[in-house]
Every structure is written in C-alpha cells, then in structure tokens.
Design brief:
With 496 residues, the protein is α+β, with helices and mostly antiparallel strands. Helix content is 38%, strand content 22%. The strands form 6 sheets. Strands 11, 12, 13, 14, 15 and 16 form a 6-stranded antiparallel sheet that branches. A 5-stranded parallel sheet has the order 5-2-1-9-20, covered by helices on one side. It binds flavin-adenine dinucleotide (FAD). The site of flavin-adenine dinucleotide (FAD) has 36 residues, from helix 1, strand 2, strand 6 and helix 9.
Amino acid sequence: MRAVVLGGSVSGLGAGLALSRAGHDVVLVEQDATPLPPDPVEAFFSWDRHGAPQVWHSHAFLARLRNLLRERAPDILEALLAAGANEIRFGENLPPELQPYEPDPSDEDLVLLACRRITFEWVLRKQVLALPHVAWHGGVSCRGLVAKPDPDSGLPTVTGVRVETADGARKVLDADVVVDATGRRSALPQWLEEIGAQAPEEEREDCGIFYTSRFYRLRDGERPPGAAALVAMDLGYLKYAVFPGDAGIFSVTLAASKDDAPLRRMMQPESFERALAALPPVQDWVQPARSEPITEVRNIAALQNRRRRFVRDGRPLALGVHAVGDAAVCQNPMYGRGCSLCMVHAWSLADVLDEHAGDPYAAALAFDAVTRRELDPWYEAAVMSDRDAREVAAAQRRGDPSSLDDKPDPSAPVDPRAFMRSVIQEGLFPAMTLDLVVLRAVVRAVNLLDPPQSLMGNPDVIGRVLAVWRDREKRERRQQELGPQRDEMLRILDAA
Ligand SMILES: Cc1cc2nc3c(=O)[nH]c(=O)nc-3n(C[C@H](O)[C@H](O)[C@H](O)COP(=O)(O)OP(=O)(O)OC[C@H]3O[C@@H](n4cnc5c(N)ncnc54)[C@H](O)[C@@H]3O)c2cc1C
C-alpha cells in the first residue's frame, strides 16, 4: 500500500517505521520546513520544531517504549544508545534501605531510556529517512482529505490528502491509507466533516497544571550526583522531576496548579532557581559548581487530556484514515507516557493493516479496539489522577490538614477518598523507599508494563503498603526530605 503519514514527529515517524518494515511505501508529510541538523547537540540548539513545541521540555522514555524498540526495531535502540542515550535499569542506585538488591527475572524489562526528546526525535528521523520506500515531504502542510464513497458501506473512503507547500503551491497526494499523526492540535475532526463523515465523539478535561522546565549541562569533569536515575516527587501543591539526558545535559521540570497564582512565579528564572534550591533531591544536581543552565525557563499551560473516537455505534466514521498518537488520545505530560503510547499505537496500526489487508472496514474496527485496549486505561487513569491532584492542591491552598491524623475531630467519620490519599501518602510513598516488592510494582506500572489498576489488584503489595501505613506515627514525616510545605515555598519565592 501507499501510506501517507501526516506529521513527522514521534507518532508519524513511528508509523512510518512500522509501515515501511511491513512492506508499504510511506510518504511522510511534515509542516515544519526543518532539515535534519548534523547531530543531536546541534539539533538541541538550532532545530526549528515549532510544530512540536514540547520538544523543548523534559521527556522520560519508559520501559514499555524501550522494550518495543528492543523487540521490533533493535537497530533504532542501538542508534539511540550510540547517540548517547543511557539505559537506566531497575535495581541501580537503590537507597541503602533497599540493599542488598535481590533481582527478579522481570527486572530485565524494567529499563528506562534517558535522553533528551530532541535526541530521540533526531535519531528516529535519521533512521526512518534512511529506509527504502520512505519519502519525506518537509515544509508541507496537510489542508484536508480527498475521499469517494465506499460502494458497500456508503462511508467516505479516503483516497488522498490535499497539501500546501511552503511556497503556497497546492496539490493532492494519493494514498491507499492516510495516517493522521499531527498531534494534540490535529484538525482531523474538521477534515472528516469536510468529506461528509460524522465528527468523532470527543472528551476533554483540563489537566489543571502549568509545566515549567529548564535544561542544564554538567560542567567538564562533573558527574550526576548520587543516583543518576530519574527523580520524580510529589509534594501535593508541587510536582517536580529531574530527567537525566544525554551529552551531560539534564533537565528539571516543575508542575503546579495553574490556579495557584503565587506559585506561578516559578515560571520566571529567578524564582524557578530559588524553588530548585529548596528541593533537596534537586539541589545537588543544580549546584553552580556541578552544572549550569543552558536554556531559558520554558513554560507550557493549556494542557488537556483529550480522546477522540473514530467508530460510532459500531460503525467507522470513514475508511482508509486512522489517527495515531496524540491525534487520537493525549494526556497530561506529567505522567511521561505520551511517546511510549504513540509508538505502541503506531506499531499496532501497522499490525492491524497487515491483519486486515484489503478490508478497510474491519481495519477501522480493529484499530478502534486496539486503541480502547492500549490507550484508554492510561487516559482514564490520567483523568482520575488529575482530578485527585487538583483536589489535593486546592486543599493545601486552603490550609486543610494534610494527614488523617491531623483531623480537627478524630472521631468524625473518615472520607474514603481522604483515607485513600492517606494510604498513598503515608503508606505507598514511604513503602517505595523501604520495600523492594512495592517499589518494583509501582515502577512496573509507571513504565506501562502492568495495567494502571495492577497495584490495587495485588494483595501482596496492598498488604505491604498497609503495614507501612499502620506504622505511620512511628515514622518521621518525609515531607521535609522532599521539599518545603507550600507556605514555606511561598516565603522562599517572596524572598526572590
Ligand atoms: C510539556 C510536555 C512534556 C511531555 N513530556 C513527556 C515525557 O516525559 N514522556 C513522554 O513520553 N511524552 C511526553 N510528552 C508527550 C509527548 O511529547 C507527545 O505524546 C508526543 O510528542 C506526541 O507525538 P505525536 O507525533 O503524536 O505529536 P507531536 O509530537 O505533537 O507532533 C505532531 C507533528 O505534526 C506536525 N503537523 C501538525 N499539523 C500538521 C499538518 N497540518 N500537516 C503536516 N504536519 C503537521 C507538527 O509539526 C508535528 O511535527 C510531553 C508533552 C508535553 C506537551
């Protein structure tokens, strides 16, 4: 088949890779007119990627993605490692409380990739463009679809796309199948309506956060402090993470409620740095003697969880067109799942087209089923977690007690959600630093190797977490090790 893939970012390149490996001709259409820079470091400083502004933010590449590459595209994994990506293995850099490390055979799969997003995309593009039967149309924007009615179902069947080149020329690219990989801002609903198809059903919910990142470079001869692993912490009012990268470059991201006006100052460089200096797990990374900032502080807001359905009442909306990655389902970037799920989705599409060759109706239904199976649980988990995070952050802004044990009236009935939060904060989080079984279970779910509900369905893990929770009064609260309470953070920002 001739596949026209719209969008040359992670999903588009992933689809291009999988489809070309399945023997199809691939035409990649990317609106950014940006030739590939000579190497990833040059790309970091000069690549114009307006179409995907998130490339300038921290990215984690989860074990699910690394394992997919290991199994289906080992050459790409190899190229990433050769370009400086590092593998972070479960069991490395464990705190003393979890030593000696007793490996489990499943830990072989529990390996993250650490590199900058720009490096990931640079390697992927370089490798995909070198494949036979892949053509790249840079600086070309899709403006709509071309379709004819399917004689059997009457549904619009897509036969090509209308594109516009950088110099304003318009033409049609013929296609046997069109893959929309144009990301979160995909115009596919409008394009479908223009060819007479129904609009997809859509759900969206604000993530409720602002997200602010800065990149740093280790000074010559300096190494990452202590644990070179990804740091990810949740103070309720503030979430923060350190993302080790490649070429001695790492990044730090802060995320907080966009309704928290005083905290929004953290989007300014001076306050951003003040905040980092107050977060013990970050301090050592950003000490001036160890590293220096190499970018401005970059901010992104208006983040949404959004999913679209391309099958309605058991009937596809159109044939020969499929939305992949963020164009279909996107979620809060804080969970770091986007690129992994994009690649899973892209590869699944190639499998579905293979299995249902010559039957676009069956392919549309099968791809919808894959999307529901692979992406929906994570989308739903993100929506639920975001709702909870918004409530926790609002409670902290109001100054509500942060622990069940600080309730003004200890005899009053306990709200089940407050109980769950207490178990997470004062059971699960400390258990992750004390019990390898709990840590492994959490890290597997975070890395998309087990479904989101896997922790709740594991009686062994629940028992271990509750044991730690029951002992909570004997333990020092860990908050101070992770960072200040919100009031204290505001005082620190005021001083800035
Ligand atoms: C702040 C932030 C941080 C993130 N952090 C992580 C993380 O840690 N880990 C992770 O896995 N994911 C993360 N994500 C999510 C991840 O970046 C996305 O899931 C992923 O980039 C989606 O890839 P995509 O190819 O579907 O879309 P995009 O990357 O958005 O790419 C869409 C492409 O389509 C092109 N395009 C758009 N319209 C047209 C058109 N009409 N014609 C031709 N081309 C067009 C654009 O130029 C662009 O290249 C983060 C996202 C954000 C916003």
